[in-house]
Amino acid sequence: MLQTSRRLLDEVTERWGVKITSVEIREIVPPRDIQDAMNRQMSAERNRRANITESEGTRQATINVAEGDKQSNILRAEGERQSQILRAEGYANACDRAQHELLAHLKTVDSARDMDSIRKALGAPQISYYGYSYGTYIGQVYGTLFPDRLRRMVLDSNVHQKWVWYEGNLEQSLAFDRNLKIFFDWVARYDTVYDLGTTGPDVERLFYSEQAELLAQPAGGIIGPDEWTDLFARAAYFVDGWQVVADAFASWVHDGDWQALQDLYGHPPFNDNGYAIYLAVLCTDVQWPLDWDKWRRDNWRIYFKAPYATWGNAWGNAPCVFWGAEAGTPVRVDGRRVRSALLINETLDAATPIEGAFEARRLFPNSVLIEGVGGTTHSGSLSGVACTDDRIVAYLKTGDLPARRPGNNRSDVQCPPVPQPVPADAQQRTIGTTSVADLHRESFRR
User: Fold this and answer.
1) Residue 378 annotated among the catalytic residues of the structure
2) Would you call 438 a catalytic residue per the annotation?
3) For the chain, what are the domain ranges?
4) Per-residue pLDDT tens over the stretch 43-73
5) Catalytic residue among 133, 340, 383, 435
6) Which residues have C-beta within 8 Å of that of residue 162, sequence separation ≥ 6?
7) Tell me, which fold does domain 108-164+330-415 have in CATH?
8) Which residues does 103 contact at the CB level (< 8 Å), separation at least 6?
9) Catalytic residue among 285, 298, 349, 412
10) One of 251, 378, 411, 412 is an active-site residue; which one?
């Protein structure tokens, strides 16, 4: 060993001109304080490495659990998606088997022509037409095809002819979410009545927490998350649904009264005809996208902004992908030859956003638009708002319209909306010395 050590040392020191003649190995014993310091350092290093090893193990275990949960959620979501697709396909196939010949004749243009056939059968040279919601689209198409056959036309809550129908449902999902938040603000305003939260966001969080719990344990074994969503649709559509929805919400939260929820939702057997004819029209008016990746991208994009109704809206229309009847091409709406029309829309109507009314006003240059300023009600005309209803009656009696103002993307007459309800014996909270209702009226006057 000494010979090897000397040889190695000679190889290194030869270039320095140094010759090592003797190598001696001795035991060196450091002082006690240095030994203690070295021991502490080695102990600390061992502990450090042990902690790192333990934390790395914990971290990797956490990652593995999270990855497992993620994959589980992905698989569950994919399973649910495939289940919904199969249900949609099954529904479309069942309709095709039951009414294959009829399905080819239920487009909006077919309804417009049927209307004119009825007019002819009655021997009437002209008709007056009053259409709500989807009925406004029938009116727009009828006015395009048979402009000289219209005497008067009132269209309340106007469909946007460029959004027929896939795009319109995406816009609806955004608007329904907004209107539900407005409803939650109203519930919070009357916290002394409902005790569901003192702010809109508080009530919204309670809504979603209750919905999540219903997934594991449906109310009464009947009302799950989907039914819960449907229950609140009435509040997103109409202010006259606010009280009954809030009452059922409070009864469930405070008393566990699931019967109140079921009474609001309805009792089986349910009549499927409305949904079937809805699909029969919308699925054949125009070709819906056939690429599921497009549905997935579009609806997730909307969902992250507006989770309330997005996927329910999507799956409700999904049978259109598999519909048995051939889709048509929508009529290009042109109302220039229609002599007059009275259009009505509330500013925040969710089912038919006011942009549809602006578009109808542009396409029917002899029309006038009455706007229910700030309102959220769908199809709310003839609900007792004199500013709107009196003008409707006058137009139907005489044909006289209010003055049309220049420009597009605007209304011609501004009226109060269908008013928000006030619960009996409510103690309305105020901001300073001005009530929320007073602020609303003041904003309208401005």
Assistant:
1) yes
2) no
3) 108-164+330-415
4) 777 777 777 777 776 767 666 665 665 565 5
5) 133
6) 359
7) Rossmann fold (3.40.50)
8) 95, 96, 280, 284, 323, 324, 325
9) 349
10) 378
